[in-house]
Amino acid sequence: MAFSASPVVELRSVSKKFAERVAVDGLDLEIPPGICFGLLGPNGAGKTTTLRMIYGTTRATTGAIRVFGLDISRNPRAVKSRLGVTLQQNVLIEALSPRQNLLVFGRYHLLREPELSGRAEELLDFLDLRSHADVSTRELSGGFQRRLAIALSLMNRPDLLILDEPTTGLDPAVRLALWSRIRELRSGGKTVLITTHYMDEAQRLCDRVAIMAAGKVMREGAPADLIAALAPETVELDCSVDEEATLLDGVKPSVPRLRVGQRLMLYLVDSTRVIEHIRRDHGERRPIVVRPTNLEDVFLWLTVPRSGGNA
Amino acid sequence: MSISPSYAVAVWRRNASMYRRTWKWNILPNFFEPVFYLFSIGLGVGAYISTMGGLSYIAFIAPGLVCVAAMNGASFEVTYNIYVRLTFEKTYDAMLTTPIEPDDVLCGEILWAMTRACVYGGCFFIVLSLFGLTPLPSSLWALLVIPVTGLLFATIGMVFSLKIPNIDLFSFYFTLFLTPLFLFSDVFFPLKERLSPGWLWVAEALPLLHPVRLARASFNGEFSVMLLWDVAYVLGLAFLLFLWARRSVRRRLTN
Question: Do A269 and A215 share a structural domain?
Answer without folding.
Answer: no
